[in-house]
Amino acid sequence: SQGPISGVNKDIAVLQCHGDCDPLVPVMFGSLTVEKLKTMINPTNVTFKTYSGMMHSSSLEEMMDVKQFIDKHLPPID
To answer: Across the chain, where does the E strand assignment appear?
Structure first.
């Protein structure tokens, strides 16, 4: 069991992605998760993206969003 989120972790950036046709984890559960997360960390740093027609899988659009998120939040490797 983890303790409360505190200190620098309160300002961590989060990207949560979800297909709106996911038959295993309904998109409603993703929405509930992101709303709970926003109560635990800085809500302005939480991004929730849904992908039209995507099931319990990934897509090129999602991977491009993940790449953009990583490029924005992690320093480049020399």
So the answer is: 14-19, 46-51
